[in-house]
Amino acid sequence: MTAVAATLRTAVANGLANRNSFWFQVSLMVANDITWIIFWVLFFHQVGNLRGWDAHDVIVLFSILLTTAGVALGLCANSRKIGQLSADGALDETLTLPVPPLAHLLSTRVDAANTGDLLLGPVVFLLAGNPSPERAAMFLFGVVAGSVVLIGFLVACGSLTLFVGGRGEQADLGFNAILIFASYPLDLFGGATKMLLFTAVPAAFVTGVPARLVRNFDTPEALLMVAVAALFALIGWGTFHLGLRHYSSGSIWIR
Amino acid sequence: MNPYLAGWRLGFLRTIRSPGDMSVRIGFFAIILVVMTALWTAAVDANGGSLHGYTRTSLLWYVFAAQTAVLGVRPRSVEEIGDEIGSGTVAVQMLRPVSVVGLRMSIDMGEACARLIASFTVGALITWLFVGAPPSLAALGLAAPAVVLGCAANIASCHAFGGIAFWLLDAKASWFFFQKLVFLPGGMLIPLELLPRPLELISFALPFATMAYVPGRIASGHPDPLLLLWQLGWLAVLLGMAGAVFAAGERRLQVMGG
């Protein structure tokens, strides 16, 4: 077993150590997500069809978001904490280990609450996403590619702290921006905002494009999705490793 | 200086001296306004330019004021109160010769006022740029005190909900529950008139509407002073509830060690 896989397994075991607390947090997150689903159902009940999107389409989009967020923020919980860890000087303990630092950081902590998203997302898709083998395959493909985009983006935002300082505010803003934009149908946005969602804040590739692929598979769009996932993985990896050159130790060995 | 006034001042100064946190909040607020503008514009366009009497302009001024009022309060306030109670930190606060809940609420209100000044100004500018002038300037003027009262009601409720930790030693569950009550029956995500009729009636009977719906409704072009009275009434009730929960909780609190 590789060091990263072993770290992730330990992180999962650590998260599950207090089972009551784990399931309590999972159930809270599930309740939170269900509120959003109720909102969308009420919203579409009132407004009907919205630029080609109905309640079903948005629930599929939401199930992709839940699963993607579950992977990025639940299984790789440190993806949104890179900025804070850098500011606290807490990368020391990782940098001393003979493992790839970014992979180790991403696999070292599991967030119980966001694991609730990971569990609920596929259930929502199965219940309300008209699953067929093709649609389920596209759902899985979209979740994997979207998770890579989301993690790459969050790591890049967090790594900005290594260049410009602060307490990880850049990551917080990036995190809020991409999750909010990813929660809404892509076709609501136009002009400069839509351009932003395909470039600087790639929310379109976290939910919008995967949801479109589930609805109507399109080979060029699927290939674009793969290319964008690879690009954001590279951006995240590159920004973090370049940023490490600016990292100052906080002399924190045990946390 | 009066300790509660000093608490308010402390909260206010502490917030304006944290520009990083403040800029993230304002950035977050700006993103929400961009998203909501897109959402409600599409919704109104799909329904012939009006939804239950709300036009695009009035809806977006509603969103501005409702979001301003809610974002003024520290997001995890209920959970933090619960943590302080659960960990026993509250016992140290009880040594002071002032009301624990009173001082906490005045500090929170100081913080909220600093955030409200920034987000009301920036949010009003952004909304004006996106959708044009508010339906009425009188409404925008009256929305300012409504936002402050909505925030105050929210803070009082946070303490009433957070005080549950005196019994459960944790308030995470009540935080989630409370947050959702502000989102839907509170009118933060959607004006109450757009809810199904039974849910609308229930929402009007609950206090959460005073925290988001009332500021939003006023800013959307309904400068009705009775709405402020509605807020004041619920604020008095909620302050009383927060005080009663803390008083009962403090009587039963037992802390080991120090």
Keywords:
heterodimer, A: 255 residues, mainly alpha, B: 258 residues, 12 helices, globular
Question: How would you characterize this protein structure?
Answer:
The complex is a heterodimer of chains A (255) and B (258). Helix content of chain A is 73%, strand content 0%. Chain A has 255 residues and is mainly alpha-helical. Chain A has one domain (3-244). The longest helix of chain A is centred in the middle third of the chain and has 32 residues, at 133-164. Chain B is mainly α and 258 residues long. Chain B has one domain (3-251). Chain B has 12 helices and no strands. The radius of gyration of chain B is 19 Å and the shape is globular. The two termini of chain B are 30 Å apart. The mean pLDDT of chain B is 90. Chain A binds chain B through residues 24-25, 28, 31-32, 35, 38-39, 42-43, 45-51, 166-167, 169, 172-173, 176-177, 180-181, 183-184, 188-190, 193, and chain B through 20-21, 23-24, 27-28, 31-32, 34-35, 38-39, 42-43, 46-47, 51, 172-173, 176-177, 179-180, 183-184, 189-190, 194-196, 199.
Work out the helix count of chain A: 12
Mean pLDDT of chain B: 90
The residue-averaged pLDDT of chain A reads: 89
Number of domains of chain A: 1
- Report the β-strand fraction of chain A as a percent range: under 5%
Tally of discrete structural domains of chain B: 1
Order of helices and strands of chain B: HHHHHHHHHHHH
Beta-strand fraction estimate of chain B: under 5%
The end-to-end span of chain B amounts to 30 Å
Indicate the radius of gyration of chain B in whole angstroms.
19 Å
Shape of chain B: globular
What portion of residues of chain B is helical?
Answer: over 70%
Helical/strand content category of chain A = mainly alpha
Query: Count of helical segments of chain B?
Result: 12
Total number of strands of chain A: 0
The whole-angstrom Rg of chain A is: 18 Å
Identify low-pLDDT runs of chain B. none
What is the succession of H and E elements of chain A?
A: HHHHHHHHHHHH
